[in-house]
């Protein structure tokens, strides 16, 4: 299990494979009347866009920290496990990574409630236009649960990064 998890964390090809299969499955479930080749083309296009964005983000983070992309993945794993590196060079990379990610989260946090509210209203309107009275309620509950999960994950990530920043200051 560890090697599969490691493969998914480090390999864009593994992530692309999962996205493609997931997109293909969703196409098969929600678009039964379409030709299977169309499912594959749509899945491939979505996979290419998402992996392109992910690769761009990894390169940008890599440049900001001065580490190669695979090292950034390892540093993120260490942040999640709260492991402080002993090597001064790794500590400097970790410090830059934590500062860069905290900056992103703090800048994005200012607009996050508005974006989540916009998504909630959009989903409610989309649900209300279907005609079924139960559908908008299910959408509203789903959106509230999803937004709560996003806020909880953001708070958790902020705590991990603040902990790592203070641990790097104490030992550095």
TL;DR of this structure?
Helices cover 86% and strands 0% of the residues. With 172 residues, it is mostly helical.
Q: What descriptive keywords fit this protein?
A:
172 residues, mainly alpha, 7 helices
Instruction: Report the β-strand fraction as a percent range.
Output: under 5%
Radius of gyration: 20 Å
> In whole angstroms, how far apart are the ends?
35 Å
Reported for the largest beta sheet, the result is: none
Number of strands: 0
Query: What sequence of helices (H) and strands (E) makes up the elements?
Result: HHHHHHH
Structure description:
With 172 residues, the protein is an all-alpha fold. It is built from seven helices and no strands. The model has no long low-confidence stretch (mean pLDDT 86).
């Amino acid at each position: 299990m560890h090697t599969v998890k490691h493969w998914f964390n480090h390999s864009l090809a593994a992530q692309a494979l999962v996205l493609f299969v997931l997109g293909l499955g969703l196409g098969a479930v929600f678009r039964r009347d379409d030709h299977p080749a169309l499912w594959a083309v749509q899945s491939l296009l979505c996979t290419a866009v998402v992996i392109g964005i992910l690769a761009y983000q990894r390169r940008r983070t890599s440049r900001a920290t001065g580490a190669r992309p695979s090292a950034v993945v390892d540093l993120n794993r260490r942040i999640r496990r709260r492991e402080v590196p002993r090597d001064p060079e790794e500590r400097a990379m970790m410090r830059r990574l934590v500062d860069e990610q905290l900056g992103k989260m703090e800048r994005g946090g200012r607009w996050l409630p508005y974006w989540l509210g916009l998504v909630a209203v959009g989903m409610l309107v989309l649900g209300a236009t279907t005609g079924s009275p139960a559908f908008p309620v299910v959408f509203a509950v789903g959106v509230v649960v999803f937004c709560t999960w996003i806020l909880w994950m953001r708070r958790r990530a902020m705590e991990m990064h603040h902990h790592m920043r203070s641990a790097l200051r104490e030992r550095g």
